[in-house]
Design a protein that fits this description.
The chain has 434 residues and is mostly beta strands. The protein is 1% helix and 44% strand. A 4-stranded mixed β-sheet has the order 2-9-8-5, with no helix packed on it. A 4-stranded mixed β-sheet has the order 11-18-17-14, with no helix packed on it.
C-alpha cells in the first residue's frame, strides 16, 4: 500500500482597473453671460467658465480653449487650467457692444482620443463715461406673467435717468424676438406682444431671457430682463365616456380589474395631471387606482346575483390645479351569475303511501327542488338504493311511480334515496313509502 503526498500553494492576485476616457467634459452653468466695461485694461478678469469630467487622472483633467477667431480671439484669453477669461488688450470706446466667444473644454487623456464639449460665452461690453444713463433697476428685471396674458398686457414700466439731463433717452429690447415690445418714451412700458400659452398646440416656453438697453445717443447701459410664465388651470378634465359599462363574475376575487376609465386635460404641468376617485357606490365593493383610473374588485367572491345583480359607481376625475377642476362619469357594473348554488328540495323527506293492488306506473308522489342560480340550472332526478329493488322508478322527470306488482306480504314499506342534480352540484333526500 502506497500513499501519495499532495501539496498546494496559494497566492493573491491584485487586479488594477484602468480608467478609460469614456466621459465628456460638461459645462456646469451654460449659457454664460459676462459684463465688462469699455475702459478696462489688459489682464482684467471678465468671468469664469467651469466644466467637470467624471473620468480619473488625465482623462478627467479639463483644459479650456477659446476657439473663436478674429477680433474676439485677439481681445480675450482664457486660463487653460482655471477657465478664467481675461482681457488680452486694453478696451476702447469702439469695443462697446456684445461679443460672443466659443469656448471648448477638453480632457487630457494619455494616448486616448480626446473628448470635448463647447459652450458660447456672451460678453456685454458697456460704454462708460461719467454721464451714462441709469436704469431704475440696473441689476435687471425679474418679472412674472400668467400664460393667459394677451398681446398688449403690461408687465412693467422701465425708466432711466441721465446726469447730463438728456431728455431724449431711447429704449431698445435685445433678443426679445417678437414676444415682447416697448411702448412709450420715459418711462416706457414693457408689453406682451404674442401669445404665451404654455399648453398645446402652442406649448410656449415658461422662461424668457432678453435685455433692455437705454441710450442717450452716445452712451448706453443694458440690463437683463427675466420673464417667468406661470401656468394657469384653463381646462377642465373631460371623461372619454359619460357612461361606462362592465361585467364581473360572481366568483371574481379581490384585485380583479373590471374596467379602466380615462379623462383628458389639455393643460400642461400639474394643471393637466388627473386624479381619479369613486365618489359614490353601493358599499365598498370596488376600488379605483387614483393615477391610472383602473377600477378593480375590492373583495373576494363577495358578489351574489341573487342579492344584487348590478352596481352603479360615480367616478370623479380632478386635476391638480391650485383651483382644481373636475368631471364626472358613471360606471355600471353588471354581475354575471356562476352556477355555484346547490339545489334545495322543497321537503327534507318525501313520504308517500300506495295500495297493494295499484297498477304498475301508478303515481305515488311528485318531487320538487329549486335552484337560486340565475338562470336556474336544469334539474334532473334519479332514484338510488330502491328497496325492494325495482319496485320504484321516475316518470316524466319528477314523478315517483310504481315499477312492479306490489305484494304487502313481501314488503310492508318501500324505501329509496332521490338525488337531484343541477350540474355540477347535487343533493339527496330519503323517500319512505308505505
Amino acid at each position: 500500500l502506497s500513499m501519495a503526498r499532495h501539496s498546494s500553494n496559494r497566492s493573491s492576485v491584485e487586479v488594477s482597473v484602468v480608467d478609460v476616457n469614456d466621459n465628456t467634459p460638461t459645462f456646469l452653468h451654460p449659457p454664460y453671460v459676462f459684463t465688462t466695461t469699455e475702459n478696462q485694461t489688459s489682464g482684467h478678469r471678465v468671468g469664469k467658465v467651469s466644466a467637470t469630467d467624471r473620468d480619473e487622472g488625465n482623462n478627467g483633467r479639463v483644459v479650456y480653449i477659446i476657439t473663436s477667431t478674429g477680433d474676439a480671439n485677439d481681445t480675450f484669453k482664457i486660463d487653460q487650467s482655471t477657465g478664467v477669461i481675461t482681457l488680452s488688450r486694453d478696451l476702447t470706446q469702439t469695443d462697446a457692444g456684445v461679443v460672443f466667444l466659443d469656448v471648448r473644454a477638453e480632457d487630457s487623456p494619455n494616448g486616448q482620443v480626446r473628448r470635448w464639449s463647447t459652450t458660447q460665452v456672451k460678453v456685454l461690453i458697456l460704454s462708460v463715461d461719467e454721464f451714462s444713463p441709469v436704469l431704475d433697476r440696473p441689476s435687471g428685471y425679474n418679472l412674472t406673467v400668467p400664460e393667459t396674458a394677451t398681446p398688449g398686457f403690461t408687465l412693467t414700466a422701465i425708466s432711466a435717468t441721465d446726469p447730463d439731463l438728456h431728455e431724449n433717452l431711447t429704449f431698445t429690447l435685445i433678443e426679445a424676438r417678437q414676444d415682447f415690445k416697448l411702448q412709450g418714451e420715459n418711462p416706457t412700458s414693457l408689453l406682451v406682444n404674442s401669445s404665451l400659452d404654455r399648453d398645446p398646440p402652442l406649448s410656449r416656453p415658461g422662461h424668457y431671457l432678453f435685455y433692455v438697453r437705454v441710450s442717450d445717443g452716445k452712451n448706453s447701459v443694458t440690463a437683463p430682463i427675466t420673464v417667468t410664465v406661470t401656468s394657469v388651470n384653463e381646462f377642465t378634465p373631460v371623461m372619454t365616456q359619460s357612461v361606462y359599462r362592465a361585467e364581473v363574475r360572481e366568483d371574481d376575487v379581490m384585485g380583479h380589474e373590471v374596467i379602466q376609465v380615462e379623462a383628458r386635460d389639455s393643460d400642461s404641468g400639474p394643471d393637466g395631471v388627473v386624479t381619479y376617485s369613486i365618489t359614490s357606490q353601493d358599499g365598498n365593493t370596488f376600488a379605483i387606482n387614483a393615477t391610472s383610473g383602473v377600477i378593480s374588485l375590492n373583495c373576494s367572491r363577495c358578489l351574489d346575483v341573487g342579492a344584487q345583480d348590478q352596481y352603479t359607481l360615480i367616478i370623479k376625475a380632478e386635476d391638480d390645479g391650485s383651483i382644481p377642476k373636475s368631471d364626472f362619469s358613471t360606471v355600471i357594473v353588471s354581475v354575471r351569475d356562476v352556477n355555484n348554488k346547490v339545489p334545495v328540495f322543497a321537503s327534507g323527506v318525501f313520504e308517500g303511501s300506495i295500495r297493494e293492488d295499484a297498477a304498475i306506473g301508478t303515481t305515488i308522489l311528485q318531487l320538487y327542488a329549486s335552484d337560486v342560480d340565475k338562470p336556474p340550472a336544469n334539474l334532473t332526478y334519479a332514484l338510488e338504493n330502491v328497496t325492494p329493488a325495482g319496485w320504484l322508478s321516475i316518470k316524466d322527470v319528477s314523478y315517483v311511480v310504481t315499477a312492479a306488482v306490489l305484494d304487502a306480504e313481501t314488503a310492508q314499506e318501500m324505501k329509496a334515496i332521490v338525488r337531484v342534480s343541477g350540474r355540477p352540484h347535487n343533493t339527496t333526500a330519503p323517500i319512505p313509502i308505505t
